[in-house]
Design brief:
The protein is an alpha+beta fold. The chain has 5 helices and 17 strands. The protein has 2 domains: 111 residues, Probable inorganic polyphosphate/atp-NAD kinase, domain 1 (Rossmann fold), CATH 3.40.50; 133 residues, Probable inorganic polyphosphate/atp-NAD kinase, domain 2 (Tumour Suppressor Smad4).
């Protein structure tokens, strides 16, 4: 990246984000996204995920610097600073994130695949519990998991849905994945697993017609699935930019001491 990088600006549709975007455009000349070396993202975590997925889908990935104008802002930086946006982006720390690749087969035999930055979740579609066979690297680990669902989370996503399902928080750079059940009934004592991020985790839906299951890769859903596999994509990577002292790895450590 050059000393004064060419920056694009994207803002969510909220009034706060649009007002901030107007102020920033008055202070800096931004370029179109296709000409930029980095993108400034105004909004919350959901809008940042949307932006990152857009880059994955378009095959043009550039570093993303988020400014929090949402609720939690776990993937974002604080909005206010005495430094200019160019200085903040130039001084920012890069954090590389590899997404999950989810591949699914439906009951009708259709195949599809999506990326997930936070987690891939399998969820029951009806009032009946789901029954799943869980396989890791080709070996069946649980022959029948009866539950509301199960998820696979990256370190970046471990403080999101995974944490609310009582899953572990994973530090960045740990090279781990969290496999976390959602309201498990059988095996009653199973509370999940922490796996190397070289693992391929597969699920087979038992009684798939009677007990239909949907799979969700971040915000993209596929219903009535029969088989799902999840693994880290080594061919794709994303770069998030964080102010020094406020990086994502520090937030993940801090989150573990919240009471």
């Amino acid at each position: 990246m050059s000393e004064e990088p060419r920056l694009a600006l994207l803002a969510s549709i909220t009034d706060k984000a649009q007002e901030a975007a107007t102020e920033m455009r008055e202070a800096h000349d931004f370029v179109p996204l296709e000409e930029a070396e980095a993108v400034v993202v105004l909004g919350g975590d959901g809008f940042m995920l949307q932006t990152l997925h857009h880059m994955l889908d378009s095959d043009r990935v550039i570093p993303a610097y988020g400014m929090n104008l949402g609720t939690v802002g776990f993937l974002m930086n604080k909005r206010k600073s005495s430094r200019s946006i160019v200085e903040r982006v130039t001084r920012a720390k890069h954090v590389t994130v590899n997404p999950l690749l989810m591949q699914a087969v439906t009951n009708a035999g259709e195949e599809c695949g999506f990326y997930a930055i936070n987690e891939v979740s399998l969820l029951r579609e009806t009032r009946q519990s789901a029954k799943l066979e869980v396989t890791v690297n080709g070996k069946v680990r649980i022959a029948e998991l009866t539950c509301d669902g199960v998820l696979v989370a990256t370190p970046a996503g471990s403080t999101a849905y995974n944490l609310s399902a009582n899953g572990p928080i994973l530090p960045l750079g740990s090279d781990l994945l969290a496999l976390t059940p959602i309201s498990p009934f059988r095996p009653r004592r199973w509370r999940g697993a922490i796996l190397p991020d070289t693992s391929t985790i597969s699920f087979r839906v038992l009684e798939a017609v009677k007990r239909p299951v949907a799979v969700v890769a971040d915000q993209k859903e596929v219903r009535d699935v029969s088989e799902v596999s999840v693994e880290i994509s080594r061919k794709r990577s994303l770069s998030l930019l964080f102010d020094r002292g406020h990086s994502l790895d520090e937030r993940i450590v801090t989150e573990q001491f919240q009471v």
